[in-house]
Every structure is written in structure tokens, then in C-alpha cells.
Amino acid sequence: MAMLSLCGLSDDTLFKSKCEVEENEAFETFQSDNTVNQMNLYSLPGNPVENMRMITARDTMGRPIELNFHHGTTTLGFLYQGGIVLAVDSRATGGQYIGSQCMKKIVEINDFMLGTLAGGAADCVYWDRVLSKQCRLHELRNKERISVTAASKIMSNMIYYYKGYGLSIGMMLAGYDKNGPSLFYIDNDGSRTPGKVFSVGSGSIYAFGVLDSGYKWDLTDEEAQKLGQRAIFHATHRDAYSGGIVRVYHITKDGWKHIKNEDCDEIYDRVKNEAK
Amino acid sequence: MDTIIDRGAPKARNFEPYASNGGSIVAISGKDFAIVASDTRLSEGYMIYTRKQSKLFQLSDKSVLGCTGCWCDTLSLTNIIQSQLKSYLYDHNTIMQPNSIAQLLSTLLYSRRFFPYYVYNVLAGLDSNGEGCLYSYDPVGHCEKVNYTAGGSSGVLMQPFLDSWLGNRTAENPVTEEEALSLVKDAFTAAGERDIYTGDEVVYNIIKKDGIKTGVVQLRKD
Amino acid sequence: MSIMDYNGGALIGMKGKDCVAIATDKRFGIQAQTVSLDFTKVFQINPHTYMGFPGLATDIFTVYEKIMFRKRLYELKENRKISPKALASLVSNLLYENRFSPFFVEPMIVALDEVTLEPYMCDMDLIGCVNKSDNFVVGGTSSSQLYGLCEALWEPDMEEDQLFETISQALVSACNRDAISGWGAKVYIIKKDKIIVRDIKTRMD
């Protein structure tokens, strides 16, 4: 508006009405923006992390705001001669409170690709959903399944756009495409690394201890699945923010397969008896 | 003449957009029903604003949303959902199913990832097979399908109680409507004893094939 | 994270008919890391007097030793066993001496009076404000969960078996919703003629 008067334009110029149209469009899409374009999120002006700290510092009565997002995890994945094994726990914590004991931390992106999630639960689930939409679109446009490399690049680019906004994501993307099996680690800093053995989350240090001592390329399928389960189980035992059910998935050239879910409580009893 | 009015050092004013208005929600789903209940106390700090404010919002004849936390966010969010549901109805000439509402709510909550709605949501409904379904949320839209849940200011107090009764249920031993209702009452009575933000009354909605039944139970008023 | 939540833990005391019970979890952790699975925070002070110490592990032992020192002096001077009520005052005084640099423990006393065998129960904050209770006391990182459960499960005049069931159920369910409590639990039922100690199984994750 200031621009208009500065240019000496009258109220009923074409230019003005175009401004109004744009303003109205912006207003209409304001509340429902990410239902139309999922990659467009509302944010306050200024530094997003600083804003978040400020708005959650206290409520109108001066008490701190308890915005407990669900968090925590142990996840792992490794490549071996028989494909890829992914194993995850299922606990979601908000602070010390256990929000859920049966969260699904492996997301099925398509029949040949899986993503694991660690960090902020909503962040991971949301962006994985956006990713699976992008993968499906790629498939429809190009008449072939997306490669894991490409999918991981899409994911890391999306996350990189929001770098410094305070997202918390540590994910592994695993799948089988025309180049064979591959495994990527992606996080909220925008890093994207291919690799053979990964573990992500608060309990990853414990999981690595078991995983590294038992891992070799020539594992049989059964050994590999057992190793994955055992590494997660030991991590849940020592790490307070991991627990619940251990879920194991296996990816081969025929796509992913869900191997088993087993409660940590049952695994504990079994492992204890085996030790005797 | 020499008097200088001391106005003190300049103070930084922060942006404090959130209020904690208290309130709790309990929801349990069964084979052919879903029950969702909230208390009716709306408060801030040590002040009670009203003793008669239900936190349940009927979204369709098969779904009810329970929403607590910052009351202004609750109102704003429920308005947006209701208008989205209307658009959907006019666009598609069908009422949105609870599972779709669940996803919509998750997406809407996440749209404000960097300035969240300070609310805890529970969506209860009957799915397309006529079975009860429940979705519980965190403030930024992490959604989980559950069989029972407690949220809001007394969520921490009530959830383990529900766990102890309903945690080990199997398909052969499903929870009945009467049992669910009595659990809801017990949970709120217990929470009302220890949480100052929960009290006055419990209002519950039982969602069934033939409609939504509403009822009220009295809680302590102090 | 508050210093009270550094090590984690959950404790409850409950009153029954002519008996009392106290229960503790067994976890000793450093924030998220579980270090030991055999750390009970309950101590016997006298044959029928037990104390539970939720809070910072290092202060638990310091406070316990200090209490025992003063309690022994008291008993030597008076030539009789200390009553739970006197013990509460003793502990309260000890904690208040450190009003401005407190020990990070919130002790609870669960006892039958050594003479009259009257049940007595109290808990206090970290600077010694005694809060006597006629039904139950709770403490530790899962105290909110425990309050909710105890309010729902507790009823007056429970017999020994029912008391055991109730206190175990409350502790186990609360630990299952708290990340830093659990890893096994121990229940003490205090009756006039015997003390029953039972280990209970909980989730280990």
C-alpha cells in the first residue's frame, strides 16, 4: 500500500487489485498450507530455535510450558550377504514419562524400502510420509521404482531446507533397488551417508557394543535377524529411553519382510534362561 | 524540581502466547463402541474460570475430539478442523471417516511445528467396520492408534491406572461398555483428588452405531 | 532435568489393617544409563521401623548414616527404641539444618510403633516438612503416576495379602510409565510378629 501512494497510483489501478488478490490468496492458504503443500510449514519471523525457546519459556501465569514431544529410541540396520536387517525398539518418551510402549518406528515407504525413525516422533513420521508421497510420484512419472539413493537425497534435501529450525531426525533408509541393497543414514543436520552398519538413537551406544562384536558379512539370515534383535534388546535393558517391543525387518531382492515382534520382557526371560 | 521518578531498569518483555488451562481426557475403545470423557473445569493458575466447560467436540456422528491444554489453541484448532471437514463434505459429498480425520489432525498440528498448538488431543470414533477406534496425539502431531488413553493435566496420573486394568486385554476378553464407563469414572475420581486442574464434573460421550450418548458424572468441586 | 531425577527411583508406603507396607524399585541409574539392578532405597531403622529414601543416590547414604548416628545417640540416652513420631522429628530437624544447601532426598517413614504397634506413616520434602498420612505415601520420579494409582487402588483396612497385591500393582504399573524407575522391585510388609520381604518381577527395559 505504501508503495502505491509512493508511486502516485490511484486506488482503482490494476496493480492494486492484483495486490489484493495475492493478499487474499495468502490469507486463504495460511491455515491449511501444509494440507496443500506438505513441505511448506508455518513459522514465526526470526530464529526458529530461539522462538521456540521463548514461547515455551513460560505461560501467562509464569510457569514453564511443558511441551513434551515424544522422543527416544534405539534403532539399527546393517547390510550383509543376505540383504539388510533392520531392528528397532518401540518406546516413545516425553521427558521421563513413557508416552507409548508400542510405537511403530519402522515406516514402510514402499514394498522395497523402509525407513527407521529416531528423534522427534512427529518430525520423523511426518517427513517419512512426505517422502513416501514423493517416491510414489517418482514411480508414476518415471514408470520405475525410485532408487534408495534418490529417495535418500530427496529426504535429506527436504530436511536440509529446515536446517537450523530445530527438527530432530535421525533416520536410516534401507531398500533394494536395481543396484542391489543399500542403506543410508540421514539426519537433521542434512548429512546423508551410505554405509554397512548403523545404529541411531539414545541407546545406540549399547546396541553398537553387541552389533560390532557379532557382525560379519557372511552371517546367515537367521543369525543376522537374531543379532539385530539381541543388539536392540541389550540396548533397551541399559537405556532408560528405549524399550517395549523389538521389531525386526528383513529386506531382500523380493522386498521387505516383517520377521517378528517380540516383547522385551519375554526376551529378557529367554536370555536369562539361556545364560543359566 | 530534582525529583527523578525511578521507573527501574528497562525490562525485556517476552512473547508469552500460551496459557495452561488444565483439563484431562480419558478415552477407551471397545468392539462396537468408543467412549471419550473430559472434565469440565477450565482454569488458569489458581483461578477457576468455569466449572461447566466440556472439552469434547463432536466432529461427525461417528467421531468426537477431546482437546485440552491452552484453551485458545483448542478453540482455534477445533474451528479449523470443523471448517476443513465441511469443505471435505461439500467437495466429496461424504462425511470424513475417523481414520482420515486422524491423519488430517496430525497434518494440521504439524503445520505449526515451529509455533505449536499447545494442546493434547484424543480422537475417538467408530471406523468403517463399526469398531471403536482411538487416536492419541502429542502437541506437534505425532499420532498413534491406541485402545485406551489418558491425556491432559492428569494424564500421567490416570494412564498407569488404565494400564493396570486394560494393558493385558486380549481379543477374547474385550472391555465392555459398562466396564469402560466405570473405569473412566474411577480414573477421574482418583485424578480429582490430586490434580487441582481436574474436577467439577466429568462429561462423557459414548459413540455407538446408533448415535452418541452423553452423560455427566459429578466430581469434587474444590 | 532436576537433580532429584538424576538417579531415578520409585517408592511407596501403604497402610493396611494392623500392618504397613513399603515398596521400592531396584534401579540405580545415571540419567538414562542403567548402572545397577540391585539398589533398594529402603532401610530398616528398628525392627518395625523402615525408611525409604527417594532422591539423589549419594545423599541417600549420607542422610541414612546421619540418621542412624542420631537415632543411636537418642536410644542410648533414652534407653528405649525410638518411636516413629520421634524419628520423624529427628529426620525433619536434620534436614532443616541444611535449609540452604539441602540434601536431595525426600525421606518417608513407614512403621509400626515399637511399643504400641500403631501404624505410622509420613513423608517429607527435602528440607524436612513432615506430612503425616493415614493411607499412603509416595516418592521418587514416578510420584505422579503413583498418586494416580494409589488414589484409585487403595482402600481402608486391607489385610496383609490384599495390601501386598495393591502395593505391588501400584508400583509395577507406575514403573511401567516411568523411564527411569523399575528394573525389579522389593516389597516389605511389616506386621507385629513378622516382616515379610518379597521380590517382585517387573519389566527390565
Produce a short descriptive summary.
Chain A has nine helices and twelve strands.
Q: Could you walk me through the main structural features you see in this protein, from its secondary elements to its overall organization?
A:
The complex is a heterotrimer of chains A (276), B (222) and C (205). Chain A is α+β, with helices and mostly antiparallel strands and 276 residues long. Chain A has nine helices and twelve strands. In chain A, the strands form three sheets. Chain A has a five-stranded antiparallel beta sheet with strand order 10-1-2-11-12. The relative contact order of chain A is 0.15. Chain B has helices at 71-92, 98-111, 155-166, 177-194; strands spanning 24-29, 34-39, 42-44, 47-50, 56-60, 63-69, 119-126, 132-137, 143-146, 148-152, 201-208, 211-218. Chain B is an alpha+beta fold. In chain B, the strands form three sheets. In chain B, strands 10-1-2-11-12 form a five-stranded antiparallel beta sheet. Chain C is an alpha+beta fold and 205 residues long. The mean pLDDT of chain C is 96. A five-stranded antiparallel beta sheet of chain C has the order 10-1-2-11-12, covered by helices on one side. In chain C, helix 1 (57-78) packs across helix 2 (84-96) and helix 3 (143-153) packs antiparallel against helix 4. The interface between A and C is medium-sized, with 21 and 16 residues. Chain A: It is found in: Cytoplasm; Nucleus. Chain A: The active site is at 73 (nucleophile). Chain A: One of its GO terms (cellular component) is proteasome core complex.
Secondary structure blueprint with pairings:
The complex is a heterotrimer of chains A (276), B (222) and C (205).
Chain A: H1 2-7, H2 14-30, H3 33-36, H4 48-55, E1 74-80, E2 83-88, E3 92-94, E4 97-100, E5 106-110, E6 113-116, H5 121-142, H6 148-161, E7 170-177, E8 180-187, E9 192-194, E10 197-201, H7 204-214, H8 221-238, E11 245-252, E12 255-263, H9 264-275
Antiparallel strand pairs in A: 1-2, 1-10, 2-11, 3-4, 5-6, 6-7, 7-8, 8-9, 11-12
Helix pairs in contact in A: 5-6, 7-8
Chain B: E1 24-29, E2 34-39, E3 42-44, E4 47-50, E5 56-60, E6 63-69, H1 71-92, H2 98-111, E7 119-126, E8 132-137, E9 143-146, E10 148-152, H3 155-166, H4 177-194, E11 201-208, E12 211-218
Antiparallel strand pairs in B: 1-2, 1-10, 2-11, 3-4, 5-6, 6-7, 7-8, 8-9, 11-12
Helix pairs in contact in B: 3-4
Chain C: E1 10-15, E2 20-25, E3 28-30, E4 33-36, E5 42-46, E6 49-52, H1 57-78, H2 84-96, E7 108-112, E8 119-124, E9 130-132, E10 136-140, H3 143-153, H4 160-175, E11 185-190, E12 195-200
Antiparallel strand pairs in C: 1-2, 1-10, 2-11, 3-4, 5-6, 6-7, 7-8, 8-9, 11-12
